């Protein structure tokens, strides 16, 4: 097998695995119960997310993933920092509520990927406000608010 052919096949392995993982998550989601359109069950949103993963993975499996340059150490550092930020978000969420950890995570992620401070701050604030409006106000999801919420 030529080097280019092997590289092309390896660029399809991860998306294919992602597709399989998404399909497995979809099966588990259905097992949780889907409910109805007026009363969604606990598996509804995981199924929607799983479908997105399956579609994305299938598309990337068919079209291939091109990355001509090698992976640099800075890329690994960014991935580890992003994962660490996500872990910090999970730890802080029940302690201080959703807005603060979400703001910190978004700021860190945007700065890691080279956005300006101006765009980072504007995007982070708008994202946190949007999360609050969509999930807490419109969908009535009981997210932790923490000690910084009005009336706490």
TrEMBL record:
The chain crosses the membrane at residues 86-110, 116-140. It comes from the Bacteria. InterPro entries: DUF1468 (IPR009936). Keywords: Membrane, Transmembrane, Transmembrane helix. The keyword Transmembrane helix applies. The keyword Transmembrane applies. Residues 16-144 form the DUF1468 domain. This is Tripartite tricarboxylate transporter TctB family protein.
């Amino acid at each position: 097998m030529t080097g280019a052919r092997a590289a092309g096949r390896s660029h399809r392995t991860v998306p294919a695995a992602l597709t399989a993982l998404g399909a497995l998550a979809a099966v588990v989601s259905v097992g949780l119960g889907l409910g109805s359109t007026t009363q969604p069950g606990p598996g509804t949103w995981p199924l929607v997310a799983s479908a997105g993963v399956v579609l994305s993975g299938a598309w990337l499996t068919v079209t291939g993933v091109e990355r001509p340059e090698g992976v640099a150490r800075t890329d690994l550092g960014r991935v580890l920092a992003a994962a660490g930020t996500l872990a910090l978000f999970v730890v802080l969420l029940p302690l201080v509520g959703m807005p603060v950890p979400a703001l910190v995570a978004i700021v860190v992620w945007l700065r890691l990927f080279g956005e300006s401070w101006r765009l980072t701050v504007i995007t982070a604030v708008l994202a946190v406000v949007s999360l609050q409006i969509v999930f807490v106000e419109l969908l009535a999801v009981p997210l932790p608010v923490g000690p910084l919420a009005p009336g706490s």
